[in-house]
Amino acid sequence: MKCMYCGCTDSKVVDSRLSEDGTSIRRRRECSQCGKRFTTYETVEYTPIMVIKKSGNRQAFDTNKIRSGLLKACEKRPVSMVDIDRIIDDIEKKIHNSLVQEISSTEIGDMVMDALRNLDEVAYVRFASVHRQFKDINTLFEEIERLKLSLEGQKDGARSKK
Description:
Layout: E1 11-18, E2 24-31, E3 37-43, E4 50-52, E5 58-60, H1 63-73, H2 81-97, E6 102-104, H3 105-119, H4 121-131, H5 137-161
Helix pairs in contact: 1-2, 1-4, 2-3, 3-4, 4-5
């Protein structure tokens, strides 16, 4: 690490600590030439993930867009911010762990719908109506029927385990 005072590239680490938020390591270093101390931070380097929109355009992955959609879908519903943050964190981890450099907005929307399906049915239908672009009331009813069947299947599966 290059000393910020004299430019020497030889330094030793005197102290290392995890940052308060746990996302980086703070290192105190001492220059072997001038003896002055300075601080450096080590963080994980993420490969930028691009989202392919329905139009074909590409944008950088942004969790704030997921948060915005979730907040609209969960408005006036008994869904806590802790639940919303958990959904966002889970989706972000899935995307980063998949090691893909590009993902479609449709795949991200499907992940959000999967999370909402088990959390709040009304929020799920609200989000689905925008994500799936329902054309008419029949399409909405079809989605509600799929949701009902899915939830009944989960209940039946839970009963059979008992």
